[in-house]
Every structure is written in structure tokens, then in C-alpha cells.
Amino acid sequence: MRLLLNILWFVLGGWISGTLWLLSGVLLAITVIGLPWALAAFRIASFSYWPFGRQVVSRAELLRRGDLGTGPVGLLLNVVWFVLGGWYLALHHIILGVGLCLTIIGIPFGLQHLKLAIISLAPVGKAVVET
Questions:
Q1: Whether pLDDT at 69 is above 90
Q2: In angstroms, rounded to a whole number, what is the distance separating the alpha carbons of residues 7 and 24?
Q3: Within 10-86, where are the H helices?
Q4: What percent of the chain has a predicted confidence (pLDDT) above 70?
Q5: Backbone dihedral region of 64: left (phi > 0), alpha (psi from -120 to 50 degrees) or beta?
Q6: What's the DSSP call for residue 69?
Q7: How far is CA 93 from the centre of its chain?
Q8: Long-range contacts of 127-130 (CB under 8 A, 24+ apart)
Q9: Which tens digit of pLDDT belongs to each residue from 70-113?
Q10: Residue 51 · residue 116 · CB < 8 Å
């Protein structure tokens, strides 16, 4: 079932979202300043391509210890991300998610957009894991 939903997601627009996030990550990686956010963009791209059967968790909870992205530096990077674009990316996914959840067929896809909204808000210090 997870494979079928991921294929439908990919064909019906997930490839566009994932590719745009991948290109954003490449552009961020080219600049020295954007390098910390490039990894977050690549993480979101991976999740955008195949979201079913995966979830977003904090790396601190996953690894049971803190690291650079889960401490004060990660908080600062997430604040900058949020102010410069994370809020409207998350708002975009929330609107799509709520709209899709209003239809019975769209509920699984709407829930995935809500997951994307969470990771779009503050991606630094997050990890995508299989469920």
C-alpha cells in the first residue's frame, strides 16, 4: 500500500516538489552562507519524493544525544530559515493539506502535506526515518 501511495504521490506532483527542493539545495550549496541550509533542503527533497512510510523526528530524540544542529546553533539556523521563508513554505503545505483532507480520497496526501509543513517550518536538527 505504501508503495502504491508513493507512486501516486510522485506521479501527481511529488516529483515537482522534490526536484524544486533538490535544485534549491544545490543553489544553497553553491554559496558559502547557504551551506547549512542546503542539507535541510536535500532532506526535504528526499521526503518530498517519497513521503509515505516515513516520518520527521528530531535528531536529538533519534540519536539520544545533542549535536550542532539540535543545539543553540540549530535554533539560530531555524530562526533565520523561518523568518526568510520557512513560514510561507509551511503555510503553503498547510493550505494544501487542509484542502486535500476535505476530500476522502485526498486525506492520505493531505496528511503528507502536513508532515511537509512541519519539516518546512524548522528543518535544521530534523531527520527523516522509516516507520
A1: no
A2: 23
A3: 15-30, 35-49, 59-63, 72-81
A4: 100
A5: left
A6: G
A7: 10
A8: 127/43, 127/56, 127/57, 127/58, 127/59, 127/62, 128/43, 128/46, 128/47, 128/54, 128/55, 128/56, 128/57, 129/54, 129/55, 129/57, 129/62, 130/53, 130/54
A9: 889 989 999 999 998 888 888 989 998 999 999 999 999 999 99
A10: yes
Give residue 4's pLDDT band: very low, low, confident or very high (50, 70, 90): very high
Question: Which secondary structure element, helix H or strand E, spans residue 96, and what is its range?
Answer: helix 87-101
Q: Where do the domains of the chain lie? A: 2-130
Question: Can you give the pLDDT at residue 107?
Answer: 94
Euclidean distance between CA atoms 81 and 86, whole angstroms: 5
Please tell me the pTM assigned to this model.
0.81
CA dihedral 4, 15, 40, 130 (to 10 degrees): 10
Grid cell locating 122: 524548522
Size (the chain), residues: 131
Distance CA 97, CA 125 (A): 23
